[in-house]
Amino acid sequence: MSAATPAAAASQSVLDVTDFSVEFRTRAGIVRALDRVAFSVGRGETMALVGESGSGKSVTAYALLGLLDAAGRITGGSARLEGTELTSASPAALSAIRGKRAAMIFQNPRAALNPIRNVGKQIGDVLRRHAGLGARAAAAEAIEMLRAVGIPDPARRAGAYPFELSGGMCQRVMIAIAVATRPALLIADEPTTGLDVTTQAVVMDIMGRLAAETGMATILITHDLALAAERSGRIAVMHAGHIVEDAPTKTLLLYPRHPYTRRLLAATPTAAGNLADLRSIPGNLPDLRRDDLPPCRFAARCDRRLPACEAPMQWRELEPHHRVACWNPA
Amino acid sequence: MRGLLLRLAGSLPALVAVIIVTFVLTRVLPGDTATYFAGPTASAESIAQIRAELGLDRPLPEQFWSYVQALVHGDLGMSLTTGQPVLTDILARLPASAELTLCGLLIGMAIAIPLGIIAAVRQGSLADHACRVIVTAGVSLPVFFTGLLLVYVFYFLLGWSPAPLGRLDAFASPPPAVTGFYLIDAALIGDWETWRGAAAQLILPAVTLGLFALAPIARITRASMLAVLGAEFIRTARASGLSSRTLILTYALRNALLPVVTTLGMVFSFLLGANVLVEKVFAWPGIGSYAVEALIASDGAPVQGFVLTMAILYILLNLAIDLVNRALDPRARHT
Ligand SMILES: Nc1ncnc2c1ncn2[C@@H]1O[C@H](COP(=O)(O)OP(=O)(O)O)[C@@H](O)[C@H]1O
Ligand code: SF4
Ligand SMILES: [Mg+2]
């Protein structure tokens, strides 16, 4: 996938990722978790990153923000956040960017919050670090943030601990922590997994509203195609550490071109299911520790495979803003 | 507060059990108190007379009943060796033991907690290896051995520390008793000479206990810190770009301390046990050495009083740990 041409208009883009590769050194060998990943997200845009579990969505997020554990490292490529190169930034520089210009929220919000610190202080900690506020101002602003994410009686709730709040409330607190400093980019990694349907909608509404208000770019990581269909303007499909297709949401849902995308859609009738149970796609993700990974990592599972598929992979721009990494797209 | 009272009430059965067990034990243990006190040349009549005086000839339930009745009135019986009420003896000696044990615990904590934190934050570093060595050594060295070794090196070979003979030099007089802790009482009246003397006597036995306490505290600190550093909320804190200072001290350490506090309670009760040997080695006039001497003399009342005191200390200790836990952990306040 060399010479990647990100689909979003470059002038508007908040994040430009090109040829981004990540490896993990493990005892069992080198895991090539991401291989030349490329995408862009523009101001105010919500891009969904979808793919079955283990395809590399979380690794993408962690690697971008410098949160990989010691075994993982970025082996190539570039990731520019509003012009700042992230791949070569020092740990100190990254820590100054995290929570200020790029923030992240996680699934399982209750575990993602400090259990013995009240939520007001947890929001305040970010403000004190990045907005230069004193303790008192940070506490006041934290209450405003709680109000902004729709938590009733915010002044009282600021003194609450995570175990005293529902999962949905905790996720609102997470959002408040993430957007407190008005970041340019928000990465939400499965933000609604584990929440009930009504709460999912509320949480997504809050994120959508805040993004619209502040022009924040959002990467919505999910294995739930229905959620992606409903909440994103564009979808990038990930498979085994490759982005295989990237198109505006409507186009992707109506005219999927990559065999993997088609299978995903077929496996989720009317796009109303999710990808947690993908048994209808034969085969597994390839073992990413193999040295002889084929150029197309979907080849072993693909029914459209041609001899030509052995050639090094290249992006094909099928129409403006719709690209696919496949030698024989449908 | 109600939870605390409930806990206190919940420990009453244990206290009753301790009272019964100590009573039975002192009656069942080999060695006959009357024979011991009558002396080697005593006749059978004089032994019987002493037995009757001590009430040892009455049936066990009756003896137990009068024992409990006395307990309720705060009467722990008389020590036949010192000729004093056991309660008086124990109250006089308890501060010596408490000062020693607390100092030992503080020394252990002061070294073990930072060591455990550094070992966890910098895995594989020198501190991590040191932590592992200390944990292994601490587990395998018996406490009387470390005590004797320290005396041998620092008193006998180097001559740096005074003779291991009690809390103060024989010619010095103790500070006026306020807390019974020499270090505190001497500091209160600004008598730094006595303070230094007491500290010099205290340091070796306290270090002995500290070394004993080091291993479990360091191990649990390291393990708990490692577990917390891998927790999801630490990932959130890192994703928020919080400084490593806030991350480690405010986020990780405070959470990691919860299991450490619980362990401290256990370590403290181990220390109370280890105290008995350390007090013997250093001729420390505490309740441990008191109990040992009484045991050798088959003097039942002090032994009973000692075990009872330990049980009460243990219950108070657990209560204190509960309080600290409640202060640290909001979740504990709600149960
Ligand atoms: N710490 C790690 N060590 C080794 N391999 C890892 C590690 N983290 C992730 N991986 C690899 O990266 C792949 C992608 O993981 P992940 O990004 O978590 O998938 P998902 O798309 O479900 O978020 C996994 O299949 C796994 O093999
Ligand atoms: S490149 Fe070939 S093997 Fe890979 S998905 Fe396309 S058709 Fe299938
Ligand atoms: Mg994931």
From TrEMBL, chain A:
It is found in: Cell inner membrane. SUPFAM superfamilies: P-loop containing nucleoside triphosphate hydrolases. GO terms for molecular function: ATP binding; ATP hydrolysis activity. Keywords: ATP-binding, Cell membrane, Membrane, Nucleotide-binding, Transport. One of its GO terms (biological process) is transmembrane transport. Its main location: membrane. GO terms for cellular component: plasma membrane. The keyword Secreted does not apply. Residues 15-265 form the ABC transporter domain. It is a peripheral membrane protein. PROSITE patterns: ABC_TRANSPORTER_1, ABC_TRANSPORTER_2. Pfam families: ABC_tran, oligo_HPY. SMART domains: AAA (SM00382). Belongs to the ABC transporter superfamily. This is Oligopeptide/dipeptide ABC transporter ATP-binding protein.
UniProtKB/TrEMBL annotation, chain B:
One of its GO terms (molecular function) is dipeptide transmembrane transporter activity. The chain crosses the membrane at residues 12-30, 98-121, 133-158, 198-218, 256-278, 305-324. It is found in: Cell membrane. It is a multi-pass membrane protein. Residues 94-325 form the ABC transmembrane type-1 domain. Keywords: Cell membrane, Membrane, Transmembrane, Transmembrane helix, Transport. Pfam families: BPD_transp_1 (PF00528), BPD_transp_1_N (PF19300). GO terms for cellular component: plasma membrane. Its main location: membrane. Belongs to the binding-protein-dependent transport system permease family. This is Peptide/nickel transport system permease protein. It comes from Humitalea rosea.
